[in-house]
Amino acid sequence: MIAMQQITINKASQHLSDLVEAALKGEEIIIMKDNQSAVKLIPVLPVKQRRKPGSAKGMVTMSDDFDEPLEDFQEYM
Asked: Coiled-coil annotation: which residues (predicted)?
């Protein structure tokens, strides 16, 4: 179970680096303003890298006879 911590905005500003570390470790941090939940501090998910066409160029090779019929299938041809 993930622990949840509620903290006032004034205390949050004094302990921001500690709260960020706690959030990165999976703790849910709720920042209160005027005795009401105002903000939830959660880690940002890593951004997926977009595919870069041609990035594997030269890394993949195929044998010269790749598209030749297989001997096992000669009777079907």
From this structure: none
